[in-house]
Amino acid sequence: MTSSSLRVSRRQRWFKHVQRLPVFRKVLLGSLGVVCFLALWQLICMVGLLKLPTPLKVIADTWELITDPFYTGSGNDVGLGWQILSSLRRVAIGFSLAAIAGVGLGMLIGASRVLYDAVDPILQVLRPVPPLAWLPISLAALRDNEPAAIFVIFITAIWPIIINTIVGVQQIPKDYKNVARVLRLSRKDYFLNILVPATVPYVFTGLRIGIGLSWLAIVAAEMLIGGVGIGFFIWDAWNSSLISEIIVAVIYVGIVGLVLDRSVAFVGRLLSHGEEAHS
């Protein structure tokens, strides 16, 4: 066999090996799905079934917006990068407070049956309240748009974190508790060596739900409170009939939401050694 034939054979074996990789299939099929979606969108808009700009027109209308995300003008006239960072800052503050309070309260409530029975009706009543229903209350209580938006994030994210943490604490196997009694572990050792490791997958399930709800809530809240933020950017673009800018902003919102979810999931897998839990 010639050297050229050997090289071809090696390339073919390498390509077949790559084809078997899950990442290759995901990238290939994902890219194919995106291309098909864009082609279908282009076709539907061209025949007039939807009164929306085509993908090509969206790119043409928003090219400067896409290529210069950190543009800075006067007042609220800033690029999409600054808008998203402003929203992320609010989410980071509200979600961090919700995570600290939610995990702490969840462990406390889950460890006490009496406390759980007393608090559960409150959780079940407040949990389904939509995020925007809290905005008038927070504005009336805090008298300022910025802390009101952060409070909406906090109150939206805290319920799934509390509930999943409670479930995690209540699902600790009895064998673990029996071992702790036999070894006469102190409360500190029980907390660090049994309670925390056993509840980590449940906690991060709640955190993933919470971060998704936080991002959803801030976009909606910013439409009403104004200022710099991706939600207000979308609302302002609607008032100015800039549909292409709205579409680009929605795509950015989806991408950021995906990154936030995958980031929390990645940290959760690291801390729970790949174990995942769902409540």
Shape: globular
Measured by DSSP, the beta-strand proportion falls in under 5%
User: What do the pLDDT scores average to?
Assistant: 83
Helical amount among residues, as a percent range?
Answer: over 70%
Number of strands: 0
Rg: 25 Å
H/E order of the elements? Answer: HHHHHHHHHHHH
Largest sheet composition: none
Helix/strand-derived category reads: mainly alpha
Low-confidence stretches: none
Report how far the terminal alpha carbons are from each other.
Answer: 59 Å
Structural commentary:
With 279 residues, this protein is an all-alpha fold. 80% of the residues lie in helices and 0% in strands. The chain contains 12 helices and no strands.
Give the topology.
Layout: H1 3-20, H2 22-46, H3 55-61, H4 63-67, H5 80-111, H6 113-126, H7 134-142, H8 145-170, H9 174-182, H10 187-225, H11 230-239, H12 243-272
Helix pairs in contact: 3-12, 5-6, 5-8, 5-10, 7-8, 8-10, 10-11, 10-12, 11-12
Key features?
279 residues; globular; 80% helix; mainly alpha
